[in-house]
Write a structure and sequence with these properties.
- By secondary structure, the chain is α/β, with parallel strands linked by helices.
- The protein folds into 2 domains: about 350 residues, Alkaline Phosphatase, subunit A (3-Layer(aba) Sandwich); about 80 residues, Arylsulfatase, C-terminal domain.
- About 30% of the residues lie in helices and about 15% in strands.
- The protein contains 14 helices and 16 strands.
Length: about 475
C-alpha cells in the first residue's frame, strides 16, 4: 500500500512540475515583419541583380543573408494595382483595381477602346494584410506611399495603427523638404528639429527607426513603402555629386537616379541596423521588392528585359525580390521559381500564424512561399501567372492580358485579339514571337487566359463609338 501511495505522490509531483514548467515557458512570439516596397525599381537596378553603376551594398548584404528570386513579378505594370494586390492577396482583375489611381486623364477619342468602370480605391470589403496581422496581435505601421484611396480609404482605414506619409498621392512634388507643401504634411513621431531639411527617403528611414524602437517589445508589421525611385528624379545632392565623379556603366548612367537608388539602399541599411540594435533581428522577417518595372526614359535601363513600367513585356513586371527569414532562408540562396505580388499575403500569414478571414482567404490568389523559403529548389506546383490591364497609359501602354505558364508567355492585345508568344527562359528579351510557329502552345495559353478572366470576373475594355480609324 505504501508503495502505491509513493508512486501516486511521485506522479502528482511530476505533473505539478510539468505544469510549473509550462507556466514558466512564455508563449511563442510571432516574428516581426518588415516589408520594403520600392516604387518603379527595375529588375537590374541593384548590385546583386547586375547593375554596373548603382551602389546598393546594404541590399546586397540582405540578399547574401537571405534568398533572392530571379523570376519575381509584380501584379501589374502600374503601382496602385500592385499595392492593392499586396494588401489583399488577390489579382487586380478580381478586385477591379486595375490601373494607377486615378488613371490617365487623357481623352480617349483617339483610341479604339474605352476602359471599364474600374474601382479607384481599396474596398473595405477586403480583409487587408494589415487587418489580418492586427487581429493576430501585431502593431501595424505604415510608412510612406499608399496610393490606394483618400479619406475613408487611407492606411488607418485598412488596419494600420500608425500612418506616416500615406495619402492618395502617388508621388511627391519634391524629394527635398518640405516635399511640395501642404499635401505632403503628415503625422510624425519626430521632433521638428529632426524633420526640417531632411531628404524624403532619409525622413522615412528616420521615422521607421523611431517606430521600431517604440514597438520592439511586441510583434510589429512595418510596411515601408518608398516614394523613391519614382519621378521627380531628384537625388540627394551629396550622392549626385559622387556619381558625377564616377565613370558610368554600360547599362546605367544617370547620376540623379543612381543617387535615388543609393538613398533607398542607405534607408534599408538603417532600418536593418535599428532592428539589430533593438535586439529583435533573430525574429524579424524582411521582404524587399518593387511595385512594377523600371522607367527607361532618361532614367534607367531594364536590359536585357524588353520594355518598361506601364508596358506588357518583361520590363514592365519582372522586378527584384529578396526575403530574409532568420534561421529559415539559406544564406545567399537563389530561387528561380515564378512568384508574384499576391504570394506575400498568404506567405506572411503562414509565417506569422495569423489566420486572417476565412471568407477572404477563399478568394486569395497568391500561394505561400514558405516551401521555397525553406528550400529554393522546391516547386509551388503553380499552373500559371496572369496579368490583366484594360487601359492605355502615357508609357505607350495598351490594353492587354498576359499569361506565363512554364517557359512560355502569351500576350493578348485587346484591341484586335492579336497574340504574341515568347519563350522567356531562352529568349529573355522577347525578340522572337513564336505564335505562328507554335500555334498549339499559343492556343493552350490563350484558353488559360480566357478561363482566368472568367474565373476572377475581369472587367474588359469596351469599344469606343467615337473612335475613327485612320485609313
Amino acid at each position: 500500500m505504501n508503495c502505491i501511495l509513493q508512486s501516486v505522490s511521485r506522479l502528482m509531483a511530476a505533473a505539478l512540475m510539468v505544469g510549473i514548467a509550462a507556466e514558466a515557458t512564455p508563449p511563442r512570439r510571432p516574428p516581426n515583419v518588415v516589408f520594403f516596397l520600392v516604387d518603379d525599381l527595375g529588375w537590374t537596378d541593384l548590385g546583386c541583380y547586375g547593375s554596373d553603376f548603382y551602389r546598393t551594398p546594404n541590399i546586397d548584404r540582405l540578399a547574401a543573408a537571405g534568398m533572392r528570386f530571379t523570376q519575381n513579378y509584380s501584379a501589374c505594370n502600374a503601382c496602385s494595382p500592385t499595392r492593392g494586390a499586396l494588401m489583399t492577396g488577390m489579382y487586380p482583375a478580381r478586385t477591379h483595381l486595375t490601373d494607377w489611381i486615378p488613371g490617365w486623364g487623357k481623352q480617349y477619342g483617339s483610341f479604339p477602346l474605352l476602359p471599364p468602370q474600374w474601382t479607384q480605391h481599396l474596398e473595405q470589403q477586403h480583409k487587408s494584410l494589415a487587418e489580418a496581422l492586427h487581429d493576430a496581435g501585431y502593431t501595424t505601421l505604415h510608412m510612406g506611399k499608399w496610393h490606394l484611396g483618400g479619406p475613408g480609404n487611407l492606411p488607418e482605414d485598412h488596419g494600420f495603427d500608425v500612418n506616416i506619409g500615406g495619402s492618395i498621392r502617388g508621388l511627391p512634388r519634391s524629394y527635398h523638404f518640405p516635399y511640395g507643401g501642404e499635401a505632403m504634411k503628415w503625422q510624425s513621431g519626430l521632433p521638428e528639429s529632426q524633420r526640417t531639411g531632411r531628404y524624403l527617403t532619409d525622413r522615412l528611414a528616420d521615422e521607421s527607426v523611431a517606430l521600431i524602437e517604440r514597438t520592439k517589445d511586441k510583434p510589429f508589421f512595418l510596411y515601408l513603402s518608398f516614394y523613391a525611385v519614382h519621378a521627380p528624379i531628384q537625388g540627394r545632392p551629396d550622392l549626385v555629386e559622387e556619381y558625377r565623379q564616377r565613370p558610368s556603366g554600360d547599362r546605367h548612367r544617370n547620376p540623379e537616379y543612381a543617387a535615388m537608388v543609393e538613398a533607398v539602399d542607405q534607408a534599408v541599411g538603417r532600418v536593418r541596423a535599428a532592428v539589430e540594435h533593438s535586439g529583435v533581428s533573430d525574429r524579424t522577417v524582411i521582404v524587399f521588392t518593387s511595385d512594377n518595372g523600371g522607367v527607361c526614359r532618361r532614367t534607367s535601363n531594364n536590359a536585357p528585359l524588353r520594355g518598361q513600367k506601364g508596358q506588357h513585356w518583361e520590363g514592365g513586371t519582372r522586378v527584384p525580390a529578396i526575403v530574409h527569414w532568420p534561421g529559415v532562408t539559406p544564406p545567399g540562396s537563389v530561387c528561380a521559381e515564378q512568384i508574384i505580388t499576391m504570394d506575400y499575403y498568404p506567405t506572411i500569414l503562414e509565417i506569422s500564424g495569423a489566420s486572417g478571414d476565412a471568407a477572404h482567404n477563399a478568394n486569395v490568389d497568391g500561394m505561400s512561399l514558405v516551401p521555397l523559403l525553406k528550400n529554393p529548389t522546391a516547386s509551388l506546383g503553380r499552373d500559371a501567372l496572369y496579368w490583366h490591364y484594360p487601359h492605355y497609359n502615357p508609357f505607350v501602354g495598351i490594353p492587354y492580358g498576359a499569361v506565363r505558364a512554364g517557359d512560355h508567355k502569351l500576350i493578348e492585345y485587346y484591341e484586335d485579339g492579336r497574340v504574341e508568344l515568347y519563350d522567356v527562359v531562352n529568349d529573355l528579351s522577347e525578340e522572337h514571337d513564336l505564335a505562328a510557329t507554335q500555334p498549339e502552345i499559343a492556343a493552350r495559353l490563350k484558353r488559360l487566359l480566357h478561363e482566368h478572366r472568367d474565373r476572377v470576373g475581369a472587367q474588359m475594355p469596351v469599344p469606343n463609338s467615337d473612335f475613327k480609324a485612320v485609313k
